[in-house]
Amino acid sequence: MNILFVLAAILLLLMCMIGGKKGARSFFALFLNFGVFLITILFMTNTRIDPYIITLSACAVISYINLFFINEVNSTTKAAFLSSIITIVLLLLFIVLVTENTMIQGFGKEEIEELSVFSLYIGVDFVKIGASVIILSTIGAIIDTAMAISSPMREMFLHHPTINKKELFTFGINIGKDILGTSTNTLFFAFFGGYLALLIWFKDLSYSFGEILNSKIFSAEMITILCAGTGVALIIPITSVITAYFLVNTREKEKIN
Amino acid sequence: MNSLHKMKEMGSRQVSLYIIIALFFITSIIFVNNNYSFYERPIAKVIKTTLEKTTESNEINQIKDQLYTQNIIAQIKNGEERGENIQLTNEYSSSGAYDQEYQVGNELFVSIDREKKSTLTGTIKDVKRDKYVLIVAWVFILTLVFVGKKQGLLSVISLAVNAILLSYALDIYLKTSNISLVLVCSISIILFTVLSLLLVNGFNEKTYAAIIATLLGTFVSLLITYLVMWLTSENGLRYEEMQFISRPYKMVFIAGLLIGSLGAVMDVAITMSSSIFWLYEKNNEISIKALKTSGLEIGKDIMGTMTNILFFAYISGTIPMIILYLMNSSALGFTLSMNLSLELARALAGGIGIVLTIPIGLYISIFFVNRKRTKS
Fold first, then answer.
1. Which residue out of B38, B176, B307, B363 would a mutagenesis test of the A interface target, given it has the greatest number of A Cβ atoms within 10 Å?
2. CA B172 to chain centre
3. Mean pLDDT of A162-180
4. Looking at beta carbons, which residues of chain A come within 8 Å of B255?
């Protein structure tokens, strides 16, 4: 039997046992995300469409699935959705700047030997694809952080209906500070687990520190981790501001009515 | 009066911390822009480029790509030939999978042809990327400190400590023969967990509960993955696509899987224990049943987004390779199974770890709460 099938079945079983209906929905959302991921790649093989546009659309769809499908459409998820999109756009601007200067796109010289059967001249802009890869590896963490801040902010608002924007914002920032460490940690270990083979390989071939740091593969991995971490930190103030506005403004609108 | 004095003291401590960070920032930037003499390989800075010729590539039917040849004059920055100009040629394509256009100001590692000619010639080996990595690292550090203040700084420190620890553990693994990588990683994982959680959350029962839950969650999920691998005889895993293999590949895969899910499992464990302890501290009389219900509700909320984090972090890196396969007209099914099987296995195993840690974290936190209750 295929190992992926068995692992997926175990995950589904556990999610249903512990999470009930919501667990099943989370598992289904994973499937949908995988579908979006595949469609994104297929679009990217069409050289006429700009990869940035494909990436931003994919991010919007993924955020939509993970916020509105797993949870429900309410002021919290709307604020989280808007914050995620704003953060992704800001982060993308930064990443574009970085990838166009660092030349970390495509494949490194360590990988090129095994790719000799392929033609590398395929008309796709690998610099743009590189920026998209960084954004897509962070999207899960960005959505998670947005939700983890806006959700308790709503609870706070429900318990203290007279709270003002500034107090609500400070509350959001404080929650953000508490989760910042664990969120960056999650990403850090996820990436390092993936790069373990590379690290051992560098050490086995006794690369010097300078060679490792300047090599395309390692610097690309480092830049991915650092950009992902920056995104997770960036979304904290953005979500706090937007959620505070959303909640307080709806209250004031209701008052006028 | 006293509190005013305290505030002043704290303010000045903060200011001095910012000054120290600023000093580090400035020195490191100056250093990385002038560190040529620390490199043994010759470095040349591009001072002039001319486009020599343009041709169209059609290696694959119906896909157009432009090929360019560019002549470069660069100035050598280190070694014996320092200050001399060198002539280089660079071929690049508009897609840039393995090449790129160079512009004035780029710094390149080159090798110099050792024939005595009137002008030096050489070949381009690599790009000097250290200053960009440093700048991005500073953007990361400053954003974290700006948003998280003290916690932000602690997170940066904890990441740095973990990175050093990992590198040190790998050194031990490589220098000791007959030691299993999975064993080295298991010991490192215990250290990572204890250090990260203590550093970010301090010495208290909340942290202890999270540490135990993390370790149990990680190792139980490892056990399950091992068992599934054994039962299915790893049918469906395409190890041949694993890159950078200099050691037994299966061990490397399992060790990577173990470390990869650790951060997410830690996150779940600390979320569970913090919420349970928070509920208990708010209401010391709260029943175990109420704690269980609330804990499970919180767990349900986080399991979807946490598995998503791992999912996207793992599979996104495969995009360039999948595109390369597809554009070279490989079949879709073959392409996906070649490039995604290991990443998907990792993501699914990590997901199992995350979901399992929810009840584990819940019951261990309740155990600690009970102990605290009987004590007081």
1. B307
2. 21
3. 92
4. 196
